[in-house]
Amino acid sequence: MNFDFKEIVTAGMILFAVIDILGSIPIIVDLRNKVGQIQSEKASLIAAILMIAFLFIGETILNLIGIDVNSFAVAGAFVIFFLAIEMILGISLYKDDAPSTASVVPLAFPLIAGAGTMTSLLSLRAEYYVENIIVAIILNVIIVYIVLKSSTKIGRWLGKSGLAVIRKVFGVILLAIAVKLFASNVTGLF
After folding, report:
1. From CA 92, how far away is CA 173, in angstroms rounded?
2. Residue 93 in 3-state DSSP?
């Protein structure tokens, strides 16, 4: 076993920024208002399974369909970039119909375990030991579960201005992650 506290913290912070569960509180509160109850346990468990499964078989799936990790990472960098722009500027580039339920879709996928998260997992796998990434995933899923369970209280406590500040801060962090992801993978395309 190659457990390394620094790797766990670093991978955990990257995943925390990409998942952006705190920045998603306004979306979660809105979903809760539209559909009533959010299935926090189911959404958290499905997201964890998706992330851990992708950590192990993601590269194989990409190879099977003829996509290399660098291409996927650059594409993911664009997705993360546009998510960051949405958060920083307060605009909505991606429009989706209002869901009728809030369990697996849209919570577990794509809100928690979306393209940005999957790309980050592949990038982390290239740099860190798998067991450290799994611990980071589990820690993040615990945080996600807690936030999902108490999203209404957190939303009231932070208020609209607090939520806006959190979204902007995490937007800048995501933007930096997108730039780093793009820069470290774009040379591998040529």
Report:
1. 18
2. coil
Q: How confident is the model at residue 101 (pLDDT cuts 50, 70, 90)?
A: low
Measured CA to CA in angstroms, residue 65 lies from 62, 68, 178 at distances of 5, 9, 24
Number of domains within the chain:
1
Residue type, 91: I
Terminal C-alpha separation, the chain: 35
SS3 content of the chain, % helix, strand, coil (to 5): 80, 0, 20
Residue 13: which domain range? 5-187
Taking the whole predicted model, whether its pTM rises above 0.90 is answered as: no
For 25-37, the pLDDT digits (tens) are 877 877 787 787 8
160: CB partners within 8 A, 6+ apart: none
Asked whether the beta carbons of 150 and 97 are under 8 A apart, the reply is: no
| Burial class of 64 by CB neighbour count within 10 A (0 to 12, 13 to 18, 19+) | exposed
Pick the closest to residue 18 from 121, 155, 162 (CA basis). Answer: 121
> What span, in angstroms and rounded, lies between the C-alpha atoms of 116 and 137?
14
